[in-house]
Every structure is written in C-alpha cells, then in structure tokens.
Automatic annotation (TrEMBL):
Belongs to the sigma-70 factor family. ECF subfamily. Keywords: Sigma factor, Transcription, Transcription regulation. The keyword tRNA processing does not apply. This is RNA polymerase sigma factor. Residues 28-95 form the RNA polymerase sigma-70 region domain.
Length: 198
C-alpha cells in the first residue's frame, strides 16, 4: 500500500493522512518540506524559528487534514505555514517585551532593527491579518493563492505556476482578476476612496 506513495496526488495523500496513514504523511512531507522551508527562510532569518514553524506546519496538517476543503494542497500548506510564522513572531515579540526592562527598550529596538528586517516582517504580518488580509479572505481561494504567491511571497510567474500546478498564462490572468477583486473588497471595507479625496 505504501509503495506507490510517490505517484499519489497531493489530494490522495491528504485524504490518506486524514485517515491516519503515517506513510502518506511522510510522502507529503518529503514532497513539500523543501520548498516550504525555502519560502519560510526568505521571510525569516532565524533558522531555528523556521525549523520550528515547518515542524508545527506538518503537525497541524497531521491533526487537521480532514478539514482540507479541496483547494490546491500546496497553497493550503503555505497558508498554514505563513500563519504559523506570524504566530511565532508575535510570541517572540511578546517574550521580548516581557523580558526587556524600560531602560533596555531603546538598545533592544536598535539591535533588532539591525539584526532583522522588522519593517518587512510587520508589512507581511499586516498583509496576513490587517485590512488587506481581511480583503484577501473575501476573494476566491484560487485568486487569493496567486496573489499571495506573487505579491506577498515575491515568486515569479513561473515559480507560482509550478507551486500551484497551473499554466503560467493562468497565473497571469488570475493575478489580474485577483487585483480587481481585491480592490473591490478593500473598497467595501473602507468607504473612503483609496488615493485621496474624491
């Protein structure tokens, strides 16, 4: 039964994982851990944090495979991983605030700004959970996956096509539609026009 796992589709592996099949879980991990690790590392310079987020991602997959709603598995895995990364950053920030006395605050803020791309991390966290994140949640999943891959993760059209398993032309057309839907969703969230007075 486990001998053909490398030939199984992601969806078939995920269904088997939902049934408690550890061989399918191992096959899913082997297939996706590499690119997930690479993308997480592009967003976070902390090697240990990336390793822990990757592990948490697959623990979540093991526990909630049955909750998968049929969207592209790679996109679903990345959504879990990206949220785990944001959660990890928030936990690190809370710990730093608790452990840092007011006298050390300026020094620690300076050191962290030198050591990590904190501005970029805040922007990415805002994309996940701010008004843009809310708007992203309102557009269709296949368009959202393309927008997250190309804009949030900075992948090329070719990389996005490979990740999502769709042709490059489809990536381009979905990206155009996604931007239009996102503008519309943002307009409904924020009644004031973007770009200044009417």
């Amino acid at each position: 039964m486990g001998g053909h796992r490398e030939k199984d589709t992601d969806a078939a592996l995920l269904r088997a994982v939902a049934d408690g099949d550890s061989t399918a879980m191992a096959a899913l991990y082997d297939r996706h851990a590499g690119w997930l690790h690479m993308r997480l590392a592009r967003r976070c310079g902390d090697v240990e944090a990336v390793r822990e987020v990757l592990q948490d991602t697959f623990v979540t997959v093991w526990r909630s495979a049955a909750a998968h709603r049929g969207e592209e598995v790679g996109g679903w895995l990345w959504t879990i991983a990206a949220r785990r990364l944001v959660d990890a950053r928030r936990a690190q920030e809370r710990t730093a605030r608790i452990e840092t006395s007011p006298m050390d605050a300026i020094r620690v803020e300076h050191e962290s700004s030198v050591a990590a791309p904190s501005t970029e991390e805040r922007v990415l966290a805002g994309l996940e959970f701010g008004e843009v994140g809310t708007a992203l949640d309102r557009i269709s999943p296949e368009l959202r996956d393309v927008l997250r891959a190309t804009v949030v993760d900075g992948l090329t059209t070719r990389e996005t096509a490979r990740l999502l398993g769709i042709p490059e032309g489809t990536v381009k057309s979905r990206a155009m539609r996604a931007r239009a839907e996102l503008r519309s969703a943002l307009a409904h969230l924020s009644p004031t026009p973007l770009g200044g007075p009417a």
